[in-house]
């Protein structure tokens, strides 16, 4: 789709659709959609196979990031929300998360896992309960699930194949026109 000479591809459309669906569902359950919407954007890939491969990485990275957020919350509660805890503990837990990802041979999941950790840990209200933290971890998984479902059912791979074929034809036509123009200007 071309809009003001800007290419709006399938992945762009599916990402917008996924965020809209997350926001719609979270509106009806009266919960903030920030975490699942962002997780969905991170998880959605250009096709079903890549989304599934990346979903495995996202699950591992979300477990690591969510687990670290729970550890952070428990230590913060134990220290009565002392300011120094965040300043010292967040960077240490980031380093631990990177080490865990590397040990699991999942370095590709470091950014997503640490983003999940930071999204959860740095948005925990002072009066939050452990339920809040578990719900945020669940929100990340919900966002990934939405991305998987939309990528699987909203726009099947066959449509993508047609789009790729159409883009190839467009490119070939442009090359042919350019070749004709170049030859015409030489004469």
Automatic annotation (TrEMBL):
Asked whether the keyword Transmembrane is assigned, the reply is: yes
Annotated membrane-spanning segments are 56-75, 81-100, 107-126, 132-151
What domain of life does the native source organism fall in?
Bacteria
Q: Which UniProt keyword terms apply here? A: Cell membrane, Membrane, Transmembrane, Transmembrane helix
Please state where this protein is localized. Cell membrane
Tell me the membrane topology, using the record's own terms.
Answer: Multi-pass membrane protein
Record's keyword annotation contains Cytoplasm: no
InterPro entries from the entry? ArAE_1 (IPR010343)
A GO CC term assigned to this protein in UniProt: plasma membrane
Protein name, entry field: Aromatic acid exporter family member 1
Species in which this protein is naturally found: Fructobacillus durionis
